[in-house]
Amino acid sequence: MITVPAYVRAEVADGGPAGPWHHRQVVSAEERARRRQLRDAYKHAERTARAALMPLDKGELDDLVKFVDARVVAEGCDHTRRFTVQWAAEHQVSLDRLVEGLEEFDGYCDCEVVMNCDPDQIYG
């Protein structure tokens, strides 16, 4: 059984912090709302900036991911971008820019393109 020192019991009973390790700052509802709004605006700006690096629009990226997914399921991933390269050639998409955009979202091979480059996550 743990014995709680009297000074801790007294501070807790008085509504004070339970020792120097327990400091809680009271924030008003308005301040919490303001902080939430700032956080959401920051996340939106970050997502928009990252999405700008992707040379495909949401529909094209969705087509790419579906194409690559079907090929990876059928043939497996050899940890290259062979299906991505095939799709890019068929759709006259600059491979250099596409690779740069996919790498921003950790799409370093075909299976990672499927797992990490979800259009809903990238474009919101």
Automatic annotation (TrEMBL):
InterPro entries in UniProt: DUF2695
Domain of life: Bacteria
Pfam families per UniProt: DUF2695
Record's protein name: DUF2695 domain-containing protein
Species of origin: Dactylosporangium siamense
